[in-house]
Design goal:
eight-stranded mixed β-sheet; 14% strand; 11 helices; alpha/beta; 8 strands
């Protein structure tokens, strides 16, 4: 049955019909697709005409893949796409009932965005961030209503993976937490786990040291990247190997999360191997750049 036909009766979140997604990259476009596939009017905010075009194409391609995989019908994909608009500049988010920020892991940029959306959405149910490395409280401090700020950490690819981490800062109100949880579980049909506002939250605090360990193994010549990945897929039933997963996440994002973990916990397991820093400096970020540990068409 189509998700477009599975809109449950809402109570507290009845007013959430229009959502703004700030950032139309891999995560932002994926979150936008999830919202639209569940019947929400979705406004994606990007910076510049080129980025707007890329975000539109990214969403179109993802919906087409869902049709090819028999996850959506052509009509359902068209209906979802019709609910998404992509605009250049934050002014387009005015009138949205909630906002989810999904720009790059740049604390200053995210803080500036939160200050703006706080001013522009006085009636918002919540102001969420998809950050995987910046403390929620730091972003909340940029607003006049820190009690409305919450972490909603989706996983890549957002239209496929069922989990969202809900992260509460020391200032997030119980009402905001309830509203965000109900939105995610009832409106977006996702599962949730809760985390304190600590670096890496739950999943990345466990995952990132594992990925870095696999990269160190490859960097030292202990084993080839192919054998490391095959070992974890065939020996541990992982759906994807750690080096391929690092490429999927994005090596720049991996570095940002690792540095956040190290800054908070001073654990040597979170130290970024030199090869990763060099790859990021060279623009070899993984799937999104066409090359990382592996090459991508």
């Amino acid at each position: 049955m189509s998700l477009l036909c599975m809109l449950p009766a809402m109570s507290e979140n009845a007013a959430i019909d229009r959502v703004a997604i700030v950032g139309g990259g891999v995560m932002g476009s994926g979150i936008a697709e999830v919202c639209a596939r569940n019947g929400l009017e979705t406004i994606v905010i990007e910076a510049g005409a080129k980025a707007v075009t890329k975000a539109k194409e990214r969403i179109k391609v993802s919906l087409a893949r869902a049709v090819e995989a028999n996850k959506l019908s052509s009509a359902e994909a068209s209906a979802a796409e019709s609910l998404i608009s992509v605009s250049d500049g934050l002014d387009a988010l005015a009138g949205s009932d909630a906002a989810i920020e999904a720009v790059s892991e740049d604390e200053q940029l995210k803080s500036e965005i939160f200050a703006r959306i706080d001013e522009m959405l006085p009636e918002a149910k919540f102001l969420a961030t998809n950050t995987s490395s910046v403390p929620i409280m730091k972003l909340a401090a940029a607003t006049s209503r820190p009690e409305l700020v919450v972490g909603l950490h989706f996983f890549n690819p957002a239209p496929v993976l069922p989990l969202v981490e809900i992260v509460r800062s020391i200032m997030t109100s119980t009402g905001t937490l309830s509203s965000a949880r109900q939105f995610v579980t009832e409106r977006l049909a996702k599962d949730t786990i809760d985390s304190q506002d600590r670096a890496g939250f739950v999943v990345n605090a466990l995952l990132v040291p594992f990925l870095l360990s696999a990269i160190r193994m490859y960097e030292s010549g202990f084993a080839s990247k192919e054998d490391i990945d095959r070992g974890m897929v065939l020996g541990c039933a992982h759906p994807i190997g750690p080096l391929a997963l690092a490429d999927l996440i994005g090596l720049d994002t991996l570095v940002a999360v690792a540095e956040s973990l190290y800054d908070e916990f001073r654990d040597a397991a979170a130290v970024v191997p030199p090869i990763v820093n060099r790859m990021v400096e060279a623009g070899l970020l993984g799937r999104k750049s066409g090359r990382g540990f592996y090459d991508y068409d």
